[in-house]
Amino acid sequence: MESRWNAPAAAALGAELGEALGGLVYASRLLGQDPSLVLHGGGNTSVKTSIVDITGDEVPVLYVKGSGGDLATIGPEGFSPLRLERTRRLGELAAMTDTEMVNELRCALLDASAPNPSVEAILHASLPFPAVLHTHADALLALTDTADDESHLRACYSDRVVLIPYVMPGFPLARECARRFPAEATERTEGMVLRQHGLFTFGPTMEVAYERMIRLVSEAEAYVAARATGGTRPAARTLGPVDPLVLAELRAAISAAASAPMIVTRHADAAVAGFVARADLAERACGPITPDHVIRTKRLPLVGRDVGAYVDAYHGEFAAQAGRSAASLTELDPAPRVVLDAELGMLCAGRRPADAAIVADLYHHTMAVVDAAESLGGFVPLPADELFDVEYWELEQAKLARAGAPPPLAGQVALVTGAASGIGASCAAALAAQGAAIVGLDVAPAVSRWDGPAGVGVVADARDAGAVARAIGFGIERFGGIDMVIASAGVFGPTMAIAELDDDTWRQVQSINTDAVLSLLRLTHPFLQCSPAGGRVVLIGSKNVPAPGAGAAAYSASKAALTQLGRVAALEWAADGIRVNTVHPDGVFDTALWTDDVLAARAARYGMTVAEYRRRNLLGLEITSADVGSVVLALCSPAFRAVTGAQVPIDGGNDRVI
Ligand SMILES: [Zn+2]
User: How far is the CA of 412 from the centre of ligand 1 (A)?
Assistant: First the structure.
């Protein structure tokens, strides 16, 4: 591990924020940006300095990371300024409840708007150094998550670290460190190892504390590398494709256990493939490498596919563990967050795509540490009761609550055709804004606009069933299922009187507007059946269904056929809990179909200005693709849970339709 300290960069932040706070922000980001040191809100940092308060008094202050903040991106506002002496003295108390600790720390703040201080704030205050850094470095965890960790740590570090036995984080850990550290530290001390938890380093300056962190972690890396047995892992292989329906059914079971739709992402990389190929997978698939991962991963992965057995075991463990607590605990959802299976690889579950991605990061590091610990005698997880106490610790759960309540469509997945632009893009945007993950399909490369943590854009011709099936499979690997299908891809075709309308033009329009939708419905039906929220389909019809236009025979007939297809689907699929509705937009001019020239020509034909033509409906409204997106979103929402087979005009009122 290389030091990334850059003195001019640190000095620049120091000039901007003051030397102490600037150095703290700089060092925190360096640590946070290295996933082998900390992951997703893990670790914490502090600096001791002084400020001049409003009365002109100089007050010693501890800037410590706010609880749940992310070191990778933290700024000065992410730190809580605490009265140093008051905070340090709290560590001398014999006991304190969590409620008392949170209250005392808030009362010790020098800024009422600051975030709640880290649960390790008192520990930071008790260490007698200006700069203090704490990580959960993989290499250190590989040494300490072993049966014989004390001898490994002594062999690696000699007497340059103080060893603290595992103690529940928060006040008990702070009190233990406040008692042990002064008794055991010498002038040779560079760090403090929290066994089965992580590493502290400190020093007179941030640079010294940071360089010590890098040095101690590098030494752990070298220690592990020198003892790597090699050859204990099966040769790396890659996992092949799997039946997407197997994944969707597993996601349905996980969602049922969680009592909410879940995103389930498949990982089949070489690291996963090597890990799940082990004959002893069931024994090796074990608990978190550091305690705070448990709120994301739960204590154990599900090995295999029996979600019911996992849920039963979770209930049993809760019943057994909750009895130890004086407080009455509410059981968290019993759904697994990590699934390991020899064929499927690793599946990671979360309410949002970001949650599932965090689980995946944590467990990738878990697998690496478990493997590394093998050459040091084998990985030893924390005891189940210690992990239960952290999983059910309200101050840990509060970190998850910082993300806020999930949006209404969190955990759900919408497949939208024609998603690159116009009505399709607006429908996808409306659903995404409510938390749905998007699988966008379009022939246009601009569908890549949906590529990101919560979406994927696939270039595919809706008429090519093979390409659509591959896109569905791709979406299932990323998100686990399909809950909503919005069929928006369509063409108007050339305006032609029937006397001139040739068979090819007719068939071309039908193939996109009708045939491709039949194929889409057939392909997605098994997945919609598995939807934990009930499958929903919205077809984009047209005003031309109830009120066709001269010169638009192919278009009007194709949308009429589409509408009948949707009505029959509503009849056939109601028993599967799938709702199928159709919208009939008209005069949506902010789509690619309506160029300025086309619009001017049409307006002229009706003897109107373009502005008048745009509002040519009973309500006098200019209708946009966003209006269509809003109605489609509503049809997919629980407000319409009792509505299927409906046709909703989105036309501003049309006397031929009404
Ligand atoms: Zn920690």
Answer: 33
Contacts of 530 (CB under 8 A, 6+ apart): 245, 248, 249, 251, 252, 481
User: Do residues 389 and 401 make contact, with C-beta atoms less than 8 angstroms apart?
Assistant: no
Cα-based distances in Å from 360 to 267, 311, 355: 8, 20, 9
Span from the CA of 216 to the centroid of ligand 1 (angstroms): 16
- Measured CA to CA, the distance from residue 658 to residue 654 in angstroms comes to 6
CB contact at 8 A, 332 and 297: no
Q: Tokens 């204590």, residue?
A: 299
Element of type H or E holding 506 = helix 503-510
Find the DSSP H helices in 147-197.
Answer: 149-157, 171-184
Q: Give me the pLDDT at residue 185, please.
A: 93
Of 513, 577, 502, give the one whose Cα is nearest residue 539: 513
Mean pLDDT of the chain: 93
Q: pTM for this structure?
A: 0.93
How far, in Å, from the CA of 326 to the mean position of ligand 1? 25
Exposure of 387 by Cβ count < 10 A (0-12 exposed, 13-18 middle, 19+ buried)? buried
Instruction: State the catalytic residue, choosing from 63, 314, 555, 613.
Output: 555
pLDDT band at 234 (very low <50, low <70, confident <90, very high): low
* Type and span of the H or E element at 360: helix 353-374
**For residue 230, what pLDDT is reported?**
57
Q: Give the distance (Å) from ligand 1 centre to CA of residue 109.
A: 22
Q: What is the 8-class DSSP label of residue 47? A: E
Report how far ligand 1's centroid is from the alpha carbon of 565 (Å): 57
Q: What strands, in cross-sheet order, belong to the sheet with 161-164?
A: 79-83, 58-65, 44-52, 131-135, 198-203, 191-194, 161-164
> What's the angle, vertex CA 123, arms to CA 216 and CA 140, rounded to 5?
25
Please list, in sequence order, all residues whose beta carbon lies within 8 angstroms of the beta carbon of residue 553, skipping any fewer than 6 positions away: 496, 498, 501, 506
> What is the residue type of 367?
M
Q: What angle do CA 410, 347, 538 make, to 5 degrees?
A: 40
Tens digit of each residue's pLDDT (9 = 90 or more) over 277-319: 988 899 888 879 999 999 999 999 999 999 999 999 999 999 9
Residue 35 has pLDDT above 80, yes or no: yes
Three-state SS at 574: helix
Model pLDDT for residues 562-585, shown as the tens digit of each residue: 999 999 999 999 999 999 999 999
In the annotation, is 555 catalytic?
A: yes
**Residue of 517, 558, 559 lying closest to 542 (CA atoms):** 559
> What's residue 235's pLDDT?
59
